[in-house]
Write a structure and sequence with these properties.
mainly alpha, Arc Repressor Mutant, subunit A, Four Helix Bundle (Hemerythrin (Met), subunit A)
């Protein structure tokens, strides 16, 4: 039988509430992640948690606000908190804020893409079925036929997302989603600067390696593709 997490050795009541809030939040987070409270259901009352944990209502409220900021709860005035379905949105939004408040260069972005998308291409070459090669050809045609930069950006993004999906590892897709705004900004810059020709060449080389299920070649093709993008991103204006 699964035992619900509880607050071990709670501090005495005179301890500052700020020290109790993270403890209460962690216990509730563990219960939510364990599935004790299913998605789209309502939690017990805040008063019941206050009695269970022997803390004040403000402590419980603040703990729940923390969980709301992480995308685990939805809190509406006059209603009990509702459990949110886990979709990674809270993590994505949090990391986007971190990226937005730090100076990130194009070269920084490409370094991360080489590590991440090089592995994605290698894994896709091994894990994907024969249908991926055909899908990639279709996405290459989309990029070739796109008539505006925004259409080209979307076609380019779909190509790279298809590779991430083909790995079978959902974290690759989440990580690309986190970086999506920066990635699309970089795509706009390169497409404005040199057009879609170089991207098409890179995609064709990657697709060929995928069709051959050649992990080493797929990884190397992705690296060359991203190195070319880095050159274009750092061209003098």
């Amino acid at each position: 039988m699964t035992v619900s997490p509880s607050l071990p050795d709670l501090p005495c009541p005179v301890q500052k509430s700020a020290q109790l809030v993270p403890q209460v939040a962690e216990v509730l987070r563990s219960r939510l992640l364990s599935g004790e409270y299913p998605a789209n259901t309502f939690l017990p009352s805040q008063g019941s948690f206050a009695r269970e944990f022997n803390v004040s209502l403000p402590v419980v409220r603040e703990a729940m606000r923390q969980l709301e900021s992480q995308g685990l709860l939805e809190i509406c005035h006059g209603k009990r908190p509702r459990v949110c379905a886990l979709n990674g949105a809270g993590v994505v939004d949090g990391l986007r804020l971190l990226i937005a408040h730090h100076k990130i260069s194009w070269s920084h972005l490409v370094e991360v893409r080489r590590a991440l998308e090089g592995e994605i291409a290698g894994q896709a070459a091994v894990q994907a079925g024969p249908e991926l090669a055909d899908e990639l050809i279709g996405l290459i045609d989309e990029l070739r036929e796109a008539t505006t930069v925004e259409e080209q950006v979307k076609a380019d993004e779909r190509f790279h997302r298809a590779l991430a999906t083909a790995t079978g590892n959902p974290l690759f897709g989440y990580l690309l989603h986190i970086l999506a705004e920066l990635l699309n900004d970089s795509r706009r810059k390169t497409l404005h600067a040199v057009g879609a020709g170089r991207a098409l060449e890179g995609h064709l080389e990657i697709q060929h390696a995928i069709a051959q299920h050649d992990q080493v070649a797929a990884r190397a093709a992705m690296w060359r593709h991203l190195d070319q993008a880095n050159e274009d991103l750092n061209r003098p204006e």
